[in-house]
Amino acid sequence: MGDSRGVIRFLLANQTYSSPNSMEHTLYLRRELLAKARPLLLCYAESCAFCNPLNIVSPQSQNRYYKDGNYSAEYLAECFDNGLKIDVKPFFDFTPKGCHENCDVDFVKR
User: Fold this and answer.
1) Strands (E), 43-89
2) CA-based torsion, 27, 62, 44, 104: positive or negative
3) Torsions phi, psi of 37, nearest 5?
């Protein structure tokens, strides 16, 4: 299987998915294959990543998203088109309460 990218390629080989949500579901369905192939995966003692679900990813699946924020795909695209990007500095040394956490974001010039 090789490195992490190789593992993902292996798990998604010959699988059909049409959105980030369906790809995630495909990976979920193949979790036992991963557990057999890589039974001794290592992980951080404290999470180093999290998902900030700012908006709906796909109409096919009603993923959880930050209902209090104004972070539609159109708004985020407009910010990007205006030379802005999400300021990630506030998330350095940030410890989320779970794998998904709603956080407001600020924008800075790219």
Assistant:
1) 84-86
2) positive
3) -75, -35
Q: Count other C-beta atoms under 10 Å from residue 17's C-beta.
A: 13
The amino acid at 22:
S
Handedness of CA 38, 42, 46, 51 (dihedral sign): negative
Q: What is the four-CA torsion angle of 10, 16, 22, 23, rounded to 10 degrees?
A: 20
| Pairing state between β 107-109 and 84-86 | antiparallel
* pLDDT in 10s for each residue of the chain, 110 residues: 567 778 888 888 888 888 888 888 888 898 898 888 888 776 777 777 788 888 877 777 666 777 777 888 889 999 999 999 999 999 998 888 888 888 999 999 99
Q: How far apart are the first and last CA of the chain?
A: 36
pTM more than 0.85:
no
| Token pair for 21 | 């949500």
Do 63 and 46 meet the contact criterion of CB atoms below 8 Å apart? no
